[in-house]
Design goal:
Helix 3 packs across helix 5. The chain contains eight helices and ten strands. The mean pLDDT is 94. The longest helix has 23 residues. Helices cover 34% and strands 17% of the residues. It is of the alpha/beta class. The two termini are 22 Å apart.
Length: 233
């Protein structure tokens, strides 16, 4: 079976509970549509588990994007010669923005890792893809963290960068294309329609799968083979 989940946000226990509920095995695939880290209690544990699974396909979210920028610089050896370049005003802006958006738990846990495990985490984050495309039962799907921004909704996804795919919010009232279904996280479904709090939203050839688990809602997974929505809380 092929599944997608998004915005785990460090909710390791719910992530494990979901894998158990879907009986996730080596025969399955799980696409994780970003925002694995930050806000929740155990972001590094989620990353470490994902990194050990060949059949978990990670896509980058805005929280991974922010974290990578900051953590790369924090891992740089600071010298007299490079101090101004590494600890710049731009870096401090990025650092405070990330921390203010839930990054403090991720940073605290990252600091406790061994040097080897820090490198493992950074190398794994570099493997996160910007998008994925698949066809199941004759239907085409585009998977991104947040949106396909701009008017060119049918351009090949390689034409888009992070700014267009991981930061903006999708217009769920609009059909982007009849050629594919867009699958996104990023926007908790309760913000799309309060009636969908804790549920996967499906309408207008959109499937929105951020069910708001870190806000006390559910962690939801969508099964492409069956159309089933699976929830844990």
């Amino acid at each position: 079976m092929i599944y997608a989940v998004s915005d785990i946000h460090g909710c390791y226990k719910l992530y494990q509970k979901l894998l158990d509920k879907i009986h996730f095995s080596d025969k399955d695939l799980l696409y994780v549509l970003g925002d694995v880290i930050d806000r929740g209690p155990e972001p590094i544990k989620v990353l470490m588990d994902m990194a050990q699974r060949f059949n978990v396909i990670p896509l980058i979210g805005n929280h991974e994007y922010m974290a990578m920028s900051v953590l790369k610089k924090l891992m740089t050896e600071i010298t007299e010669d490079n101090y101004d370049k590494v600890i710049s005003s731009d870096f401090m802006t990025e650092y405070h923005y990330w921390i203010g958006d839930g990054g403090q738990t991720t940073l605290a846990q990252f600091k406790k890792l061994s040097a080897d495990d820090r490198t493992l985490i950074m190398d794994y984050l570099e493997e996160f893809e910007l998008y994925a495309e698949l066809t199941v039962n004759g239907e085409n799907y585009r998977l991104v963290h947040a949106d396909i921004a701009g008017e060119a909704k049918d351009w090949p996804l390689e034409a888009f960068g992070p700014a267009e795919l991981i930061f903006t919010r999708a217009d769920y009232a609009r059909v982007y294309s009849t050629d594919y279904v867009l699958v996104t996280g990023h926007t908790p479904t309760m913000l799309i329609d309060p009636a969908y709090a804790g549920k996967i939203y499906q309408n207008n050839r959109h499937i929105a799968i951020d069910c708001g688990c870190v806000y006390g809602q559910t962690l939801g997974a969508y099964c492409f083979d069956t159309g089933e929505c699976v929830y844990v809380k």
